[in-house]
Amino acid sequence: MLNKDELLRRTNNGLNVFKHYIPVQWRTGRNFLNPLYDDRKASCNVYLDRRSQIYRLKDFGNDEYSGDCFFYVGKLKGLDCNNGVDFVEILKTINREMNLGLEDERIEHITKPSPIPDTTIQEPLISKPFNIIQQKFSKTELDFWGQSGISLDILNTYRVISLREFRSENKDGKPFSCTSTPIEPIFGYMGKRYVKIYRPNSKIRFLYGGDIGENYCFGLEQLPSKGDILFITGGEKDVMTLAAHGFNAICFNSETSRVSSEIIYKLTFRFKHIVLLYDCDKTGIESSVRHEKALSEYGVKRLILPLSGEKNDKDITDFFIQGKRPEDLRKLFLEFLDNLYNETLTMLKSFEIDFNNPPEKAEEIIFTGDVPLGTQGNILCITGGEGTGKSNYVAALVAGSIIKKSTPIDTLGMNVKSNSQNNAVLLYDTEQSEVQLFKNVTNLLKRAKLKDKPVEFRAFSLTGMSRKERLQAIVQSMDKYHYEYEGIHLVVIDGIADLVLSANDEAESIRIVDELYRLAGIYRTCIVCVLHYVPNGLKLRGHLGSELQRKAAAILSIELDKEPVSVVKALKVRDGSPLDVPLMQFSWDKEIGMHVYIGEKPREEKERRKEYELTSVAREIFKIKKHFTYMELCERIQEIMDVKERTAKSYISFMREKEIIIKDSLNQNYYLIGHNL
Fold it and tell me: In this structure, is residue 506 part of a structural domain?
């Protein structure tokens, strides 16, 4: 019978009701933020009232929100606990949403006269003994999963099995068993110490065996190390449906159960977006609103599917069964981003170069252009002093990224992969005016032999924004264009120092470079950062330079050799030796009005540079002490030059050959700096 006393008995005097409906992390007797209102100070807790022997919620900050579990659920559902009709509805709601089975004590038999449990609490506190008999998936069962796009491989990946029989105990300790039939199949979601039973066609769909724990999270182990979107769904089937269609997803025990903030916090470092994708019925919408509020500090958002909320038209599985494609879900997500970033993108629009309404013509000045270079998921740094030609060098790289496949152009000695997928190419300039950037991009298109600007190429002059706004505009627009153009081919930030208040601010420098490195990994693109500083030998200056030195996959320095010839030198390459990279040269050609590639410097020049740089490194190393073992010397070279062990060993061989270092005549295990140094 459904009544207050029986419901309290089935829920551990109301404690399990609080555990089921309170979405935030909490423990009995410990203060937490009250989820019933915008609570800003943790002064609310759940305790056992010794007089009545039931659990109650006490809010010391606002006593109007104190009461028992019925009062709490009533507040959540907009019902008055003191009204008789509403109180009955509260009882029915708890019974229904926690699957307590109190309305009808006559339990339906499955295939044999064994009692079925009348309780399926979302997060059982007591481990239940269980036995299962596994069987192969039948064709009918595989067809059931297949209509959602879920293959046998997906089922195996997520450890889903077909069961012939399941045996366990109910809340009262009475044994029961369920047997599979073609009409009422039984599936098991297997964990290390538990099984969660799914009976899609039965009256009681979910049962448990073993110890499922308080932080049940289905799909967590199958997630990649990094990704862009992570959906939180209402159930395990929805998780696998999304996986079958190429999306990352997890679910907790149900839409109404507690979402672990500890798990969400850890996932924020791995995914750009964490999005609630619950059912479109009343329960799903209410739960997603509550969880979005509780997890707002982690940036968790919610996406509502365009479904009616009726049966067979309420969740992501229904969405795909109706013939929708992954592209349709991505389109919904792009619309979600448009709404989320509306204010920023509206503001950014005024800074976008409008080629239909060019700015007034101004006197000719030096152009600065930036282009990404390197490998996917990494940062490339280009540095050099004023007047070295790095603006034209970077413009040549950008031109190479937007040309058509068969068009040969001069990219100043570099090979640039063509943008065959027409992904976004983004150029952010923090130094030049709108007029200057327009002229620079016009010249870039001339080098690329294009009459019109490709739609996937976007150029922005950010000089009118504050430094804080610039980074926000870059981060959010990258996210938007990543989905709009199905990827980002290149990102160029010309003037990275203008994103920080000071290039010598260590904390700010680390934050900026870490964020850019993270974005490069998430979007699988290369971000080119132009630093307008003259390097000190093989090292970049300032804390910003040090962070770029540490995180960048490669660093190129452009120096003026003999006017008008500029030389491109490698200061760092992730694989190999920067001192063995050819010295490339380019020069201004008056006839065609742009820089052109004039070949590599002679090998002798490269060898002289290598000897000069390693001599400087040796002097720095032997300032500390006079003697070094081979391994100590190798470690110091790796540390100073940021190279791998094999490269450091090759440098030691070269230094010995040139007598930059010599062996100690008294102890052959040690090295000294050369006599001529």
Answer: yes
Kindly report, residue by residue over 372-431, the tens digit of the pLDDT: 348 888 888 988 887 787 778 888 888 888 887 767 888 888 888 888 889 999 999 998
In eight-state DSSP terms, residue 487 is: S
CA distances to 129, 158, 390, 460, 513 from 427, in Å: 61, 42, 15, 6, 17
* pTM as predicted: 0.51
- The CA-atom distances, in angstroms, between 86 and each of 81, 91, 92, 550 are 6, 9, 10, 63
What the block records as the tokens of 170 is 């109910």
Torsion angles phi and psi, residue 478, rounded to 5:
-60, -45
Query: Do residues 238 and 205 both lie within one domain?
Result: no
527 DSSP β-pair partners: 379, 491
Other residues' Cβ atoms within 10 Å of the Cβ of residue 254: 20
Extended beta strands in 501-625, E state: 526-531, 554-560, 565-573, 584-589, 594-600
One domain, residues 86 and 146: no
Same domain, 328 and 264: yes
Residue ranges making up the domain that contains 93: 4-97
- Give, as one character, the DSSP assignment of residue 580: G
Nearest alpha carbon to residue 554 among 369, 383, 368 = 383
Beta bridge mates, 251: 218, 233
Instruction: Look up residue 114 and give its two tokens.
Output: 């064994």
Domain match, 262 and 141 both? no
536 close to 617: Cβ distance less than 8 angstroms: no
Can you tell me whether residue 530 is helix, strand or coil? Answer: strand
Residues in CB range of 91: below 8 A, 6 or more apart:
2, 3, 4, 7, 70
The tokens for 660 are 């930059």
Residue 171 sits in the same domain as residue 303: no
Q: How many domains does the chain have?
A: 5
Residues 311 and 383 in one domain: no
For the chain, helix, strand, coil in percent to 5 are 35, 20, 45
Regions of the chain short of the pLDDT cut 50: 104-125, 362-373
Report in angstroms the alpha-carbon separations of 584 from 390, 395, 572: 13, 16, 15
* Angle, helices 467-484/342-349, rounded to nearest 10 degrees: 100
Which contiguous run of DSSP H or E holds residue 101? none
Could you give the CA distance from residue 14 to residue 16 in angstroms, rounded to a whole number? Answer: 6
φ, ψ of residue 526 in degrees (nearest 5):
-105, 130
Supply the pLDDT for residue 391: 75
Last residue of a domain, one of 322, 340, 358: 340
Same domain, 281 and 426: no
Helix axes 506-523, 467-484, angle to 10 degrees: 10
CA-CA-CA-CA dihedral for 346, 347, 351, 353, to nearest 10? 0
Is 60 in the same domain as 200? no
> Among 340, 361, 386, which residue terminates a domain?
340
Q: What are phi and psi of 207, to 5 degrees?
A: -135, 170
- What is the C-alpha to C-alpha distance for residues 164 and 132, in angstroms, rounded to an integer? 8
